[in-house]
Amino acid sequence: MIGLISATEAGGRARARLADAWPARTRVYEGPVREAFERAFRECEQVVCFLATGAVVRLAAPLLAGKGVDPGVVCVDEGGRFAVALLGGHAGGANALAREAGEVLGAEPVITTATDAVSVPGLDTLGFPVEGDVAGVTRAVLDGEAVALEAELSWPLPALPSNVTPPETEAVPSRERATVRVSDRTHTPSLREVTLRPPSLVVGVGASKGAPVDEVLELVRDSLQGAGLSALCVGQLATVDAKRDEPGIVEAAARLGVPLVTYGAAELAGVDVPNPSGAPLAAVGTPSVAEAAALHGGGELVVPKRKSERADGRPAMATCAVVRRPARGRLAVVGLGPGARDLLTPRARDELRRASVIVGLDQYVDQIRDLLRPGTRVVESGLGAEEERARTAVAEAREGRAVALIGSGDAGVYAMASPALAEAGDDIDVVGVPGVTAALAAGALLGAPLGHDHVSISLSDLHTPWEVIERRVRAAAEADLVVTFYNPRSRGRDWQLPKSLALLAEHRAASTPVGVVRNASRPDESVRLTTLAALDPDSVDMMTVVTVGNTATRAIAGRMVTPRGYRWQGV
């Protein structure tokens, strides 16, 4: 929850804007400012104050307990010009909150955290729990020292600066270097050393009906401790479907802060385990719950099935087993939109900064190169190498890296998602990031041409036989669909567009509106509204999108409009 505090009428108006924008996330604190701030500080994860920074410093100072527990605090001046991340930039999320508040209020986010200022990922912002001397190692990274990256687990990480390298690549003795370790083994980091804790462990649990949560948790923690494994690396608890609502298991997952996943008894019965038993077979239909659930997705069994121990000597009510799952690379297929920076989605921007490897067409890489973190490796190639880029991106992900494969518009529309997903198996994680397509960008410039059923057709016969394309154009013409033509004409393909327009003309009037948009959202953008009869195919090239209306589409006040129905409202 985000607490909102203001002291003046102007601050109250800005406060109301945030409250209206985030109704489910915010709570307005009224009353004397000091009392309101103290209550918000105690009760909320984050606080936004529409006050002077000096006033908030004085209010917060007596309440500070430590960066791990203090809320993130953002100050917004009464003029709404700046949103200052004052306290808890990383741990409290104030840096991200300042950016979010800035977007709502039109304020400039002011972020002074050193790593953010130079676009280096903070060690506590990589998405994993971190232990150790975060400040000392971060200082070494920022100062350009040789920092050792000791990765016991090949977990996908964002790009790290070039001075963070495996030990064997540096001549500086390891004892003299700051160190970033990636491990799930228990280890107390020393000075100038941090350990990142990826979610590498799956704990399988079984329980009798009514098993107490404390018994389940004690068994899980003892099992991890006995094997020298960190509880921070538990990624999920797993069990059989029959136990999905068992209170002791559900509450144990909640207290550990991990999801509970369940599998059918038949699925678990098919998992080969070292310690099958007749008891769970009779009770829930599988000879193993804990081991089978932990091993379901593959991995190394590091703690075989163990039973809980009860001080009163009564039978154990819980079992558990621990598996180290193999590290999985991550492939994000990212749509960059039509070209304008403000049409690049926030999610796409986040994925670009999360990746350690970017794969894409050279001209698309140039569009976003300034957004990449220092140390990001770029693999770029020219037109015609789409399948090679897809194979490269998948291969990089299979090596355990975080990869972003980029394309223009939406990566799933005539772009890189199809060849990449055809190449990718279930051995990597794949994330699709939607983007603004060329058809949508052009449609917004033309008016509302896509107001009713519509279809997109590529006129490029490089990968699709013309006979197939022509059949689709005929079908769209007969079905009276609005048609957007992608790849309409090039120097080597100059007859396909006139042929397609002729096919549409068999079913539509010569006066049917046609929109022609070139380089939508880019500096040399051009937009023309013409008709089916008047369109000159020679004015169209590969950077152009052509949208042909249906029989109901009209030109109104210079805009192309297709009604939502075949009757206008009120007619």
TrEMBL record:
Residue ranges occupied by any Tetrapyrrole methylase domain in the UniProt entry: 330-535
This enzyme's EC code(s): 2.1.1.131
Keyword terms of this UniProt record: Cobalamin biosynthesis, Methyltransferase, S-adenosyl-L-methionine, Transferase
Residue ranges of every copy of the CobE/GbiG C-terminal domain listed in the record: 201-322
Domain Cobalamin synthesis G N-terminal: 36-116
Gene Ontology terms for molecular function: precorrin-3B C17-methyltransferase activity
InterPro entries, alphabetized: 4pyrrol_Mease, 4pyrrol_Methylase_sf, 4pyrrole_Mease_sub1, 4pyrrole_Mease_sub2, CbiG_N, Cbl_synth_CobJ/CibH_dom, CobE/GbiG_C, CobE/GbiG_C_sf
Keyword Calcium: no
Gene Ontology BP annotations: methylation
Pathway: Cofactor biosynthesis; adenosylcobalamin biosynthesis
Gene3D superfamilies linked: 3.40.50.11220, Cobalt-precorrin-4 Transmethylase, Domain 1, CobE/GbiG C-terminal domain, Methyltransferase, Cobalt-precorrin-4 Transmethylase, Domain 2
Pfam families assigned: CbiG_C, CbiG_N, TP_methylase
Annotated CDD domains: Precorrin_3B_C17_MT
Protein name as it appears in the record: Precorrin-3B C(17)-methyltransferase
